Amino acid sequence: MPASTMDSELPVEPQSLKKLSFKSVKRSLDLFSPLHGHFPPPDSESKKIRVSHKLNVEYAGVKGISNQPQSNAKSAVQDQPSASSNVLALPGPESTRDQQKGVANNELVIGPSVQLKGINEVGISGKSTAVVASHISSERNLSTAAIMERIPSKWPRPVWRAPWKNYRVISGHLGWVRSIAVDPSNTWFCTGSADRTIKIWDLASGRLKLTLTGHIEQIRGLAVSDKHTYMFSAGDDKQVKCWDLEQNKVIRSYHGHLSGVYCLAIHPTIDILLTGGRDSVCRVWDIRSKMQIHALSGHDNTVCSVFTRPTDPQVVTGSHDSTIKFWDLRYGKTMVTLTHHKKSVRAMALHPKEESFASASADNIKKFNLPRGEFLYNMLSQQKTIINAMAVNEEGVLATAGDNGSLWFWDWGSGHNFQQAQTIVQPGSLESEAGIYALTYDVTGSRLITCEADKTIKMWKEDETATPETFPLQFKPPKDIRRF
Predict the structure, then answer these.
(1) Dihedral sign (CA 443, 446, 452, 458)
(2) How confident is the model at residue 44 (pLDDT cuts 50, 70, 90)?
(3) Is pLDDT of 91 > 80?
(4) 437: which of 6, 131, 319, 394 lies 20 to 30 Å off by Cα?
(5) Would you state the pLDDT for residue 178?
(6) Cβ pair 319, 299 in contact under 8 A
(7) Which residues does the annotated region (Disordered) include (predicted)?
(8) Residue 333: beta bridge partners?
(9) How many angstroms separate the CA atoms of 293 and 355, rounded?
(10) Count of C-beta atoms within a 10 Å radius of residue 220
(11) Distance (Å, rounded) from C-alpha 240 to C-alpha 235?
(12) Nearest to 232 by CA among 280, 295, 274
């Protein structure tokens, strides 16, 4: 049987006349107005009401001015100098006095200077030529604000930056390379891997200098002290170790974490160490005495990123519970909790010069102000992957690395993504091993080092041959600022 016949045999639900009239304006007019195609005749009474309301709204501020001549108004004000609070004398030049003899009564003349003696007083000048109302009604202010021209927000134009290119691939680890740190003297860097070793490499040539063993699980965090000859490492074996680089051995261990340690940071001015792990706690350690100073507990999930600064907030942590917390190091309590992200905050980067930082999540890369943590804006593109690491240099080049091997470069000031690079897996590796787990700039900020899932370390630098003509800046400012 055809579908049209079946539809016609379906039972029709009875509906009331009121419900039908609400569904369609045409049906309502068919029911109640046979001439719905014609406009209704104009109503003079409603027009009067509309015009009078408009007059009241537009001219309520000057409606109370009397229509008597200005000389009478001036003499009345001189007789009663404090008669009303809404009359002010605005002094004008000498020539204005002669010009005002033939001016209509309802015009206002505002002189070049206004001198008020008090809120409820009236300043009268011998050279005054006009009396005007001082206050404007709230309706007038509202209507003026409604018709003011809105100035469009100007998004900062990004600075042209040269693209980055891969110039060296270093092999040597037997597992995923999970962490990296650069020596403050900028002569070597160290990497930690899932093969449970820490390897130290020459930064200039990329040659292996030393291999350290001591952990029994993969090494997730590394940091090199700029005040002592110490290197700190943390891993999935719940251990945090302090290495003496003069003896190349472990001299201290910090015990307290209940699960794997995922991130690590050294305070820039005080001899303390911060570690965050899978037990949802960021622990603060005294480097020399090995004592735990604070257990910064408040996150509901793994603490996977942490950085420190010399002034408050001295400790900032990001977690898998999608929050960022600022901590008061004196009392070990939370100062501010930022809840702007919707996914895990796996990476954060503090700008070396500005009072701001960026945080990365699978939903967005967001920029925040310090010290209060005001949200500034989202970066203008979405990487659409899990971002494991990010770093920014002094020139304002932000690099973010994802699980799918994408390495994106951003302009810090404007949030513009000026380059999208893709790492290439080494021969013999799977395509799924293109993830980047850690990255950092060297001390000068001119070289970028990435640690990857294909067991290699790649080094990047700016392309010296690039020019604005060969690599043009393609920037489209956003029409609106997304505030979430």
Answers:
(1) negative
(2) confident
(3) no
(4) 394
(5) 96
(6) yes
(7) 65-106
(8) 328
(9) 27
(10) 27
(11) 7
(12) 274
Dihedral-angle region of residue 445 (phi above 0 means left; psi in -120 to 50 means alpha; beta otherwise): left
Taking the C-alpha atoms of residue 384 and residue 404, their distance in angstroms, rounded to an integer, is: 10
Alpha-carbon span 24 to 370, nearest angstrom: 55
In contact, 382 and 371? CB cutoff 8 Å: no
Higher pLDDT, 157 or 92: 157
Contact (CB, 8 A) for 212 and 243: yes
Whether the bond into 371 is cis, omega within 30 of 0:
yes
Does position 115 have pLDDT exceeding 70, yes or no?
no
Q: Tell me the CA distances in angstroms from 48 to 52, 57, 62, 428, one per residue in order.
A: 6, 14, 21, 86
Cβ neighbours of 394 (radius 10 Å)? 14
DSSP string, 332-348: TEEEEEE---SS---EE
pLDDT tens digits for range 200-233: 999 999 999 999 999 999 999 999 999 999 999 9
Sequence letter at residue 150: R
pLDDT of residue 111: 43
- In this structure, what are the phi and psi dihedrals at residue 97, rounded to the nearest 5 degrees? -60, -40
Q: What is the distance between the alpha carbons of residues 317 and 335, in angstroms, rounded to a whole number? A: 12
Find out whether 386 and 362 touch, Cβ atoms under 8 Å. Answer: yes
Cα dist from 402 to 84, 220, 406, 420, whole Å: 71, 16, 5, 11
Give the pair of three-digit tokens for residue 276. 């965050």
| Topology of the domain covering 164-462 | Methylamine Dehydrogenase; Chain H (2.130.10)
Site of tokens 């940071």:
265
Of the candidates 302, 306, 285, 303, the residue with the CA atom closest to the CA atom of residue 294: 285
Residue 172's nearest CA partner among 211, 203, 204, 205 is 211
- State the pairing for strand pair 347-350/356-360: antiparallel
Q: For residue 402, give the DSSP letter.
A: E
